[in-house]
Structures are given as C-alpha cells and as structure tokens.
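Case study B.
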Amino acid sequence: MSLWVDKYRPTSLGKLDYHREQANQLKNLVQCGDFPHLLVYGPSGAGKKTRIVCLLRELYGAGVEKLRIEHQSITAPSKKKIEIDTIASNYHLEVNPSDAGNSDRVVIQELIKTVAQSQQIQSSTQREFKVVLLTEVDRLTKDAQHALRRTMEKYMSTCRLILCCNSTSKVIAPIRSRCLAVRVPLPSVEEVCSVLANVCKKEGLQLPPELARQIAEKSGRNLRKALLMCEACRVQQYPFSGEQEIPETDWEVYLKETANAIVSQQSPQRLLEVRARLYELLTHCIPPEIIIKGLVTELLSNCDGHLKAEVAQMAAFYEHRLQLGNKAIYHLEAFVAKFMAIYKKFMEDGLDNFMF
Amino acid sequence: MMSKLSLGGKASASKLSSWVEPAFGELFPGRRGPRSGGDSGDKPAKRRRVKSSAPNPESGSPSRRQAPRGEPDEPWVERYAPRSQAELAVHKKKVEEVETWLTTHLDTKASFKGGTVLLLTGPSGCGKTATVQVLAKELDCRVQEWCNPNLPEYRTDDSFRQMFDPDSRFNGFQSTSQTGAFQDFLLRANKYNHLQMKGDSQASDRKVILVEDFPNQFYRQPGCLHDILRSFARTGRCPLVFIVSDSQSGDRGSRLLFPKDVQDELAISNISFNPVAPTSMMKLLSRIVTMEAGTSGGRVSIPDKSVLEQLCSGSSGDVRSAINSLQFSSLNDLSLDKSLWTLKKGKIPAPSRKGFMKAKGKSKSSQNTDMLGDSQAIGGKDASLFLFRALGKILYCKRETFEAAEAPRLPAHLSEHQRDKLLLDPELVVERSHMSGELFSLYLQQNYTDFFSDVDDIARASEYLSDADFLTAEWSSRTTMLEYGTSVATRGLIHSNSARAKADSQSSVGFRPLHKPHWLLVSKKHKENCHAAQSLFISFCLNPVSLQTELLPYLAKLSNPMRNPAQIAFIQDVAHLPLNIFSGSRLRLEALTDKDPGLIDTDSENEETLQSEATAENEGLSTEPGPASSPDAGVDLPMSQPQPTTTEALLEEEDLLIEEYESD
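Model:
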C-alpha cells in the first residue's frame, strides 16, 4: 500500500487535474519529439515533478516509470570521492546535485558527461537524446551553475536538461536564458478540494466539503501536504466529520509551543529553554530556515501594528544571516532574543499607557 | 628528564653531577665563555638518562642533607630537591591521594590480585615524579624506573662490518625493539627482586615500577601498550606507576596512551596534578633564596620579592622552570643580569595589576613595562589558561574603577554605554586558552545566558555573537576574519552585560557552572539525520526540505505498512517530537569541569590551608566565587581540562569539508 500522494499521482499530461492549459502547451511542446532545456519552477507541492514525469512519459512511453536507484561515486580532480544517489530509468536520470555540497560542480560535469556520451543504441525506436533531471537547482553553488551553463551547450545534441527549482531568483541569468521557463503555480483552494474529493472517491471514502476546504486552507494549497493531511485525517477518524480537527505534524506543534514560550515570558532563562527547543528541532531534521519562518508566523500573530513590521524586518535580517553564516544557532538565538527584547518593551509600554 | 629524576630525590646527585652537564655551568666565568642566556628554557639539563637508576635512597640522602656543598655548578633544582613530604610544593591533598594509593597497593602480597596501575598526569614541572620518589622513600620501597634504551639503530660501516663478520660468530646481530625491551623490563622488574647488597641494611622487597618515558612505538600504536598492560594486570606483583606530562597545546599523551575504556578495563587509577600554586611556589623560592644566601657568601645576589613574584607568575606553576630561572637570575656576576632586570626595578607590581591588562590611556607607560616584564621573566613559560578560567574571565568580566580624575566620560546620550575599565584583554584570554576563536565563541554562546539578567542586554549580546559568525561567513576571507570575529564576540559579550558595567557591581551572579557547547553535536546530528532521511526515503523522489518537513512527519502519523525496519526506526526517532511543554531536552548538559570531582571543594580547601600565608590580594581573589580572578594570582588553577578531543574532532571535520572546496 503506498501513500495516496503516490498512488493517485497522474501519469500523463492528459490526466492532470489542474493547469490544463499549461498541460496542453507542454503536450504540444513535445509533440514533435524534441524540446528545449526546461526550467520548471514554482512553490513546493504545486506539481512540478508530476508534470515533468508526465512529460517524460509522453516522450518515451511507459519505460520511464521503471526506476532504479543507483549509487554513483565520482572522483573529483582533487582525488576526492563523491558519493551520490541517482534515480534513473533507461531514458532519463534524476539527480539532486546539491546533495554533494560544495562538490556539486563536479557532479554536474561528470554525470552529464557520462550520460551525454553514451549514445542510444536503437535510435529508431527512441529519441536520440536522454533527459537529465536536476532538482533543487536553486541550491547549487555559483560555480556549479556556471559549469552547468557550459555543459548545456556542449551536450545539446545528446541530452536535454530539465531543471527543477522553487525560485528562479537564485538561478543565474545565463541559465535562465538558455531554458524555457515553465512556472507551475499552486493550485487554488477549489482545485485542491476537487483533487481531494476525487482521491477520496477512488478510495471509497466520504469527504465532507467543509473538511476538504479546511484541509486545503490549512495546507497552504500545497497539494502534497493536503493529501498527506487528508490521509492522516483518515487514520485519525473515519467517517470524516465536517469539523474534525486536522492533525498537525509534531514539529509544527512543537514550534507553536516554542513560540508561545517566547511570548509568555522574556528572560535569559527562557531564552535558554528556547535554545534547547531549537536544538531539538534541528536534530529532528527541520532546516533552520523553516524554523525561523515558522517562528515568525507564530510570533506575528501575537503582535500588532507597527510591531509586526519591526518583527518581520528583523526576521528578514536574521534569515539573511542564517543563509550566509556558518552556525545557524547564533542567528536563531539572536532573533529570539531580539524579539524578546522588543516584545517586552512593547508590553511594558502598553502597560504604562493602560495605567495612565 | 634528568632533572626530573633528580628532583625526585635521587640519591645519585653526586655521582651524576660528574657526568651530567649542569645547565648553568657554562654561565659561570672561568669555565667557558658565557653564552647568551637563551638556553635556560624549560629543559634545564641535557636529556640524558641513567639506565635503571635505582639506588637505595637511604645511602644517598645523608650526604645530601649537608646542604649546599662547595660545588657551585650544581643545579639548584637538584640541590634543593624535596626530601620529605613537607618539602613538596604539591598540594597536600594530592600527595595524600598518591600516598594512600601506594600504601594500599604495596601490601597486596596477602591477597594477590595481579598488578595495579596508577597514572599520574599534570603539566610538566608540577612535581609528579618528585611526589612518587619522596613517597617511595618514606614508605620504604624502591623505585625501579624504565627509560628508553639507546638501541643500536644506525651503525657506522665499521661496526656493521664487525657485526656481520663471518669469522666472529659471537658477535651476533642482536637487536630488540624498544617495545620488546619494555616488555622484558616489566617482566624482570616484576619477577626478580633487588639483590641484597651489603650496604642495604633492611632493604625491603617492596618496590614500585615507574615509567615516565614511553617507547615511541606506543604513541603510534597504543594498542601495544594496552596488550602489555593487560598481561601485566594479570601477572604483575608490584604497583606500576605511569607519569604522563600533559601539555595544553595539542599533545594529548595521556588520552592517547590511556584512553578511558582502557583505564576502566584495567582499573587504572588516575590522579591528575595541578600546576603548583603561586603561594607554595613563592614559599619554596624564598626558602631556596635564603638558604643560598646563607651559604654562598655573596657570590649570589638575592633577588628581591618583586623579582620572585615575577618568577612565580612567569613559570605558570612549573617548579622546575621556576627554580632554574631563579638560579639564573641570582647570578650577580653576570653583566647580562643587570640589563635584563633593570627594566623591572622601576615598577612596583601592584597586586591588582599582576595579570595582564589592556594598555590604554595615560597609564600606558607603566603598564607597558608591566606587559614587558610579564613576558621577560627569564625561562618563563607562556602563560596559558584553562578553558574554564578563560571562559570565566570573559563571562565575569572584572572591571576596575578609574582613578577619579582621569575617568573619561561619555556624552549624556551615550551614557548607557559607559563602562569601567576592563581588567583583561579578551584577545589575550582567547589566545591563552589554546583554542580556535570559533570554538571559543561556541563555548561562550553555550554559557552566556546565565550571566545576564536583562533581556535587552542579552539581545545585544546575542546580536554580537551573530555578528561574529557573520564575519567569518565568507570562506575565502575566513582565516583573516576569524580573529576579528572572536574579538567581536568576546568584547561584544563583555560590553553588552550592563549589569557588570561598574567595578563594584559584580557580586550579583554567584558561581555558575559552565557547560560544553551543544551546537557541534546538534549540527552533526542534523547532518546525519538529513543524510539518513534522504538515503532511506530516496524512493519517494522528494527534495530534502519537503521530505523532512512534510513527508516524514506525516508518515509518522500514518500507519503505512510498506516500510522496512530501518525506515520505521528512523521515523520513530526523528519524526516524533516530545510534545509536552518543557519536557527535558534530549541533550544532556555536560558540565565543563574536570573529572576531578572536587573542583569547588579543592578551591575552598585551598582557601583554608593557604589562608595563613595568603597575601591580602590573594585572599580577595580567591573568595571571589568562580574563576574570575586574574590568572596568576589565583590560588589554585582549578583542573578544568577542556577535553576538546571530541569537539575539536568535530570541528576539524567541518573544516575539512570546507577545505575540499575547489574554486577552479
């Protein structure tokens, strides 16, 4: 039994649930059997990967769904061994080069070279190019992106690249201009609801529309999250009821508790406790950016007026540092401490105004 | 080494002095031309050793009791080597500890349980060997000592030919490794008793095997030593004492040779020595000076008290080096002496200024000499600080009031930044902690919250820490920026603590325990977990963020049976969080102290025992809770070994990743 997310993932461009027009365009694009390099971007959970897989299927047929996980090791010029996992079919190769950290440049060059240099044997029945799918391109180092630029041109005859990322802002302009950019926006609430309803129907479940709407809103229109939530609801309680509480993930609850702890008391002692909680979140694989984002959202609901702006500005400042710095905890902690200071002052001022 | 032996009350001083070149011999006129005094460093005597130098102590001591003999070139270290427990400069409690161990393990004849091993650690020159030797004498047992033999390794052609001469069959090529020799030595020392000589009246058969210098092979393969020790533990009959000097910078002899698990396995007792306290060092030096003055008849000039204090502080708890420096500095017929010490004559070492301090303002000149003097104590060691103290210095940030007249005032709108003068130089503190600035900042970050009471202050402090990290963000400029980053972190932390802005506002925070930083562990765990998540759940084809924040947490909520055990275990571990508020976190606070349990106890005890002779300034500082006193004036250096092995290893790992970045 697989997850609903995987079970009911559409497998062809024709079966996609939303953004039909875009699906048609994609279909037309590959109709002639060839396509330029693609840069697919959009928020997480919008269906980028689904569309890419559909596209590949359109190109190569069902063969692309036979996936195998390969463990590749690449030797860098500096004799360093880089281990990386790839997912491949006979026709395409999917790799997340940022797994290799600072050596992503080598991964890109070497992997694409090996793929591009191996010719397809039966070119009559197949396309004369392979597809390399690079995920998380926005997390590549600048070096790797420049290497990619060169590679794209060099192996144009034998391989096509599909780049997949959340935002193009971190992708260098030369790459953006070499690709056909395809933006996959989030589905609307209604679209999410209809997908949920469809899935539940296929599962033989009754999904009240109110619950579907709640899930859609709570998931932030992230379809993956919505489906996971829906499945979690199913585990929690069935038959569904309209005002059923939607289970949240542990880390979200934990983060909320942390935010409450910050708001309820501002003292060095409390900062120490918060730090311990931050550490706990970090050890549970929650990336620091997500932590600071979640904290801000929670904290902002406790602020009003000009304080909101101040907190948001501060959060942006420390998130920037978080991205650039080495040790996330310094910046997370500085943000928390700063918020405590501002919030305390705000509360005291408010109290004074109240008294007089 | 030689002097370590002799410091330990070896009876052989008279014998030795004939063939061991005394360190200062050449400084005396008439023997050889005086050399520039550079070689009076920390190794006074030539590194030569006496093979199996275990003469019975009784015969030796009487001759030595007739204090200074006519030999002027005898190193004072040997001449004034301790002969009784009372003369040891080591703290009484430590001596007792060693004594109890020795007494309990010397008389195990009745209940034979195999060999027992004692490990003595401590900085060099703190009297480890001396303690063993003195105690052995008092307990009436012999010390049999191992020393690395000079094995024939490189031969001249002649001797080589001789060795392989086909005609002489008796000159067999025989060579054993040092390790083999060591094993032999242990076996023999263990099995065979000392021969009864005529002179030895009531020679007991009790003996202690002492190992101070280890065959080099052991450093490469500590396993060899452990095997030998294991067999010794089974068959041994007499106590075996290892002495390992640990220096702070990098050399982790004791940890390498005797890792914790081996210590536990073989029940090795470990007693670690502290550097000699300045007060007992002072006592010792003045005793030597007076004795020397009484006998030498003017040939030796008596250094005044300030010079002695200089020596004390310069030696940082190393008796041997202090005595050597003393001997050197009291040679009055050396022209070089004058020039070296005149610099200091002018200034009075005010107790409060004994440590280092920042040279600034009008008093610059006088403080400059202070700094100079500090570094100029001949034979002085580089002062170093235990991490515990270094952190304490930054966190407690002692200040000093300005003399009323010269106090610079900030304008009114900046008055909240008004701070009294700092008593320390943060950069120097970090440097002396023998630690990278990055790691030091981490330690600070772990511990600073306890020392703040105001949220505004703590916000500012944390911002400085964040600044510091940000400064070192750029990989290419990191090496340069590291120092600045540390400066920002330490100084920012000190400045932002407004509760400690004034010299007299310091007693608000009592003693606070310090802890090791969690971050290294946390970030390692984070990386490991992320990696594990990706490799375990690669079949979902998700990018890490959505995998970790969406899929895994929900998988934990679903009862999806298709996962393999590794995945289930991982989800159990990682995707679940303890959800009741303020449940204790999984991270244990690792207190930053030594294994020595009596950190605070020894401190307070020291206060009692030393009160009689403690000078006023010492008392003032030692009653200060915690390690905030200046480095040299502290009564006792609390044994707070940083034990940075693991953390440093982690850090190195991190650095490694960065180094492998190639930019071409």
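Residues 119 and 270 of chain B are 5 Å apart (CA to CA). The remaining cases will be described in the next quarterly update.
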